[in-house]
Structure formats: structure tokens, C-alpha cells
Amino acid sequence: MFPNSPNLGCSSFPGKLQGSSDLIRFPLNLASSLVSQQFIESQYNAKNARALLSAGNSSASTMSPHAWPITDGNPAAGASQNRKRRSDERNGPFDTKKQRFLSPQSVSTSNHAVPFRSDRRYSMPGSSRSLHHPLLQTPDVGCVPSLRDFPFMDYLKTSLPLARDKLSQQILDIFQACQQQVSDLEKKELCRAELQREIQRVYPGSRLFLVGSSMNGFGTRSSDADLCLVITNEPVDQRTEARHILNIVQQLFFRLSYIERPQLIRAKVPIVKFRDKVSLVEYDLNVNNIVGIRNTFLLRSYAFIEIRIRPLVLVVKKWASHHGINDASRGTLSSYSLVLMVLHYLQTLPEPVIPSLQKLYPDCFDPSVHLHRVHLGSLQIPPYLSKNTSTIGDLFLGFLKYYATDYNWDTLMISIREAKAMQRPSDNEWKDKFICIEEPFDRTNTARAVHEKIKFDTIKEEFQKSYEKIRNNKDLNVILPVRAAIQRR
Length: 489
Description:
Elements: E1 37-41, H1 46-54, H2 57-60, H3 86-89, E2 99-100, E3 115-116, E4 123-124, E5 141-145, H4 152-158, H5 166-178, H6 182-202, E6 207-211, H7 213-216, E7 225-230, H8 241-254, E8 259-265, E9 271-276, E10 282-287, H9 291-305, H10 309-322, H11 335-347, H12 357-360, H13 374-379, H14 392-406, E11 412-415, E12 420-423, H15 453-473, H16 482-488
Parallel strand pairs: 7-10
Antiparallel strand pairs: 1-4, 1-5, 2-3, 6-7, 8-9, 9-10, 11-12
């Protein structure tokens, strides 16, 4: 599914889920830009998984956790303390050691890699192994296109707008220091791939997707990671079924040596929060929240059609976090809502910086597009040549002014789908809400977390105060200390 995950080339759901839908039917004949890839043999071990979840510690040894390497030079050293090594438990030809899972030409992450057996490490084209290897004929095979084969990776590294003023240079300095690196993304992918193998022992045929800021182009070096576990092609009741599934996943995570503090959060969309001990990344895992997969690639398309967008979004998120208005769990704005606010502002300028991609390319972002093809939409979107020549500094100042003085919070709704501010609908989703921001696919309110007037007033006040402070001297330090923002990354 994702350009950096083993969801392309995979079979559809097994058993009773297979015949009725193409929701996750992954073709092996991939486009040439996605050909260079690695294959992972999924381990389906339902018997051991049931034993793990139903029995005590005495039966847990039937499915020993995969330990991550935590010492230099010898990946097995960190795994062998106080427990058996996999090579001691199995005597097969491929179990003699654990190897790092890396894409071709990828950056070394010596102490941050998930161990994979050597029989899972071969790639195409140029592989010494034949494409007719028996593993490729089984339905349990997934493939991982190299991150560097994805067209946006070189663009990510080399394309930055010119800084023609002090404020623009400050924004670019923060962006270059804080933007998510390829190595950061690879570490998250390694953990995702390993967790998928573990979960597939309990739910064969499931797929675990990396979504959110880690994948949409707006992530920072300190960004948490969001995961979507797709169990079925049918809707899942988030209050009952999703919680039950997440409870099982939580119990599984308790037994994995590299996962700590798995916690079930019973929200409207329930999640399991946990931390990877190796990379120290925090994760949120949901079940079948498929709209998150779709909007990830919509935002990724916006991120790369205009070179000013990513630096602008990153500094807005840093500014909002510094002023305490970027935390949905505390009743303020989520990062997703802030991104939509920036995109809406850029769409509604007298000379727009960006268009509505859903209007220009409706087929690429059709909500009915199968999941295994969602990522292809972003590959078909060319750069947008805007006639707006404003600097990043001017756009940031204009963003603050728009929401401080121009936007009518009381009657309007933000819609990047329509590229305009619309009158609020009259149904309960929007009635009596302080901030209304339309989710571009399921058309719910992404800012529903702002449900207290005092928090709403704080958000408006921060826009107004920041605009008044920066409008004259145009020095970012008066509202966001640049050096401190860079140090926190």
C-alpha cells in the first residue's frame, strides 16, 4: 500500500473475507517506479498466537518475542540477555542469525533495526535470487519498495525556496533542522514491519499501515508515528469491535521485548499507545480507521506540489505547539487540523498558492478507490505553478492575519475539498461547535476536540497576539524562539 511498507504485492484477506471484495488485493505487477523492493515472508502462526493470548507465561515460549539489537557490532548481543535466542530455538538453515531489514542503498541504522531472518532479504531488480523463488508463489508475501525509489525522496532533499528576507530565512532554518529525515522514516518502517509480522500471527491477512505526519510529508524529527491496523474490508464498530481487537493487540505488545507501556485509550476512535524502546518513538495504533490512509496521501500530494508548503506548515506547527494550542487531547487543535488550516489559507488567497486537488484530480482521490491503489494517486500529481510569488515569510504573516482578523469563526467551515470557506451545515456534527474544519473524505469535523469556550478563546487570542507582535519587525523570535525550536527539533 504505502511506498515504504509491505502492503503492495500482497494477497487479499484469506478465508471468508477473500471472495466478496477487492479491498486489499495487492498486484505483483507494480509500476516501474515501485519495482525495486524487498520481500517479507509473513509468518502465520495462529496456534502459537492463541496459546500466547490464552495461556500464561509457561506457554508464551511457543512464540518468543523478537528482540531488537541494542549493542554495537553484534545484533544478537542485546537479544540474548536473560532469554533464548531464536537461533537456539530453531535449527533451520535460515535461523542461524538475525539480520537488519534495509532497503537497497539505505542509510545505516546499526542500533535501530528490526532483525529479520536472512530468507526474507532479497530484492528486485538486480537480485541474485530468481523472481520465481518459491516464496513469491505463496499468498503470504508482501513487498517493500525502497524509499529512495519513491519519486518524492530526491525532491524532499533538494528543493527549497529562496529566502529573500530575514523572516523567510528563519523559517527555512527551522525547517531544515527539524524536518523528518529519511533515516527517521526508515526506523518507523522497520518497527511497523516487525509489528505487522507479530500481529499477523493473531490476525492472518491483516495489514499495518504507517499513516499521518510520518508519511504525509509534514513530519518532524520528533514526530510520533500513527499506525492503522486493517483487519477486514467491512466497517468496524469503534466502540465495541475495535476495542476488543485493540485489547488483544495490547496483550500481545506486553510480551514483546522492544515495546513498552502499551496503553489502551478508549476514545471515539480507540487506540493503543506504546513506545518503541530502540528508536524511542511513540506510536498510536488504531483499527480500520481507513480514512486516515486516504487523507495521508492527499496531504502528501499537497506537500510536494509547491515548495513553500512544507516549510510553512512545519513552522505553523512549531508556533502552535510553543503557544500551547496544538494538542487535541487538551482541547486545542490537532496537527491535522492545523495542516488543513494552512492549506485552506493558501487556497483562498486572491492569487492562490495551491488549488483543490480533489477538484482538479477527482479520479486520483475518489473515496471508492481501493486501498492498494490509494498511493498511486499522489504519483500522478505534477507540481503546481502558482502565479503567487509571496515569500514564505509573507505567507506566514498572512496566515496569522487571516485567522486573527479575516476569518469568521462563528459561521464558516473550512473545506480544502471545495477550496473555500463554506457556511456551516445545520446537522449535529457542526451545530454549536467553536471551530469547524471539514475532513476532506468523510466530511466530519476534525476540530471537534475544541469543545470548551476558554480553549477556543485561547486559540483566537494566540493568533491575534502573535500577528500584532510580528507584523512590524517581522522577526520570528518575538513569537517563536528560533534557536530553542531548532534544539527541540
